[in-house]
Amino acid sequence: MLAARAGELEVVRTLLDHGVRADTHGATESPAVIAAAKAQQPQIVRALLDAHADPNEPAPDGTTLLMLASGLSDAVLGKRLLDGGADVDHKDKAGRTALWHAARAGNAQLVEVLVKRGAAVDAADGLGLTPLSAAAGAGHADVVGLLLANGAGANHRTEHKETPLLIAAAAGNAGVVEKLLAAGADENDQNAYGDTALIVASRAGHTDIVRRLLTAGASTTLRNADRFTALDVARSRGTPEISQLLGGD
């Protein structure tokens, strides 16, 4: 573990050559191969895998090596792990799969590989965020397009009834908003607080997204739980261009 984390490749090789098992670790420690991946030591990761380290043994928080490969945008390692029998749908303690991590990281190449290997496209985490929602919030339009093309639900809701469109509109990700609308996302869905994509975009001052939502037919009369319309929100934020788009003075 110490050698793997410190990047001591020759020490790791010497230990392996003298019979130390690649999966040896303390009761409360992560597997050495995960420690090496977190320390960004790809040579050590490969040396441990060559010595038959278990690709599926998770860290105490449920993180697997495949998840780390997804988050670190290492498609080559990800494919090797999948070829070696890595569990494509294992979830960490937050309920997130390797596909979720790859989508959030914008790792389009590995997203495509994971989907082809049968990863559950709409597997949501503990908060109800799917890989599509994660990619939408991070602004990865290419990954959003990939997931939609492979059957991801454009109107999937989180525990607070946030949809990918609401998430993208709040974050100001215009390219993602465009892809979601083209895939049939409901422009008038409301979250648990009554906000629509138009309201959250108006609140955040995203003029281009407000304009696109209006073109898509977004309602200007829907009110949130505070009884505010998108125009009310825009006026309170002092954004005259958005107010004008919404029919204000």
Summarize the structure.
The chain has 249 residues and is mainly alpha-helical.
Task: Tag the structure with descriptive keywords.
249 residues, mainly alpha, Serine Threonine Protein Phosphatase 5, Tetratricopeptide repeat, 16 helices
Describe this structure in words.
The protein is an all-alpha fold and 249 residues long. It has a domain at 121-249: Serine Threonine Protein Phosphatase 5, Tetratricopeptide repeat, CATH 1.25.40.20. It is 51% helix and 0% strand. The chain has helices at residues 2-6, 9-17, 32-38, 42-50, 65-71, 75-83, 98-105, 108-116, 131-138, 141-149, 164-171, 174-182, 197-204, 207-215, 230-237, 240-245. Helix 6 (75-83) packs parallel to helix 8 (108-116) and helix 7 packs antiparallel against helix 8 (108-116). The protein is elongated, with a radius of gyration of 22 Å. The mean pLDDT is 94.
Secondary-structure topology with pairs:
Blueprint: H1 2-6, H2 9-17, H3 32-38, H4 42-50, H5 65-71, H6 75-83, H7 98-105, H8 108-116, H9 131-138, H10 141-149, H11 164-171, H12 174-182, H13 197-204, H14 207-215, H15 230-237, H16 240-245
Helix pairs in contact: 2-4, 3-4, 5-6, 5-7, 6-8, 7-8, 7-9, 8-10, 9-10, 9-11, 10-12, 11-12, 11-13, 12-14, 13-14, 13-15
